Amino acid sequence: MSEAPDPLDAVLEDPWAVWVGERTRQRLHLPDFRRAAVLVGLTREPDPRVLLTVRSADLPTHRGQISFPGGSLDPGETPVQAALREADEEVGLSPTDVTVLGELDDVFTPVGFHVTPVLARIPAQPRLTLNAEVAELLLPTLGELRAAPLVRETRTLPGGERVPLYRYPWHGHDIWGMTARVLHDLLGEGP
Fold it and tell me: Of 187, 36, 38, 182, which Cα lies nearest the Cα of 120?
């Protein structure tokens, strides 16, 4: 009688899970910043696609910007719970269709958010339904993003610290800000 496969075997054999497990995650401690989480969803394909959204032009903040599904943590919520909830709310991605692989390096935004990116696998052809916050879905492959002409800039923060900024032009879209920073870390493109 053959033994049933352990469902964790699929996660452990996933190269992204191994990659996450081999890294030392950079955590931030920013008590005055608002906690948030985003879902960095990669499709299950030889050249995975990453799930990005174009925010609606009707929103009070970040209009038209490209982002990962995500948002603020509710009281008592973990980053993983928040990322799954927000992805479900924004694009209809059912948490049952998501395999969480781990958390990437924390990032912050100039407007006061401390964001934990949650790396996950999603179906190659996810069934999605956009809410009013999302104008459009983007699904670039990681290969396309690696081939994009990465633009690097440096900005000096009010305290004098110099931080790198990145931009990924892709099919007429400008992926920048926190989203580009997370992509840059994910793609392992160095400083």
Answer: 38
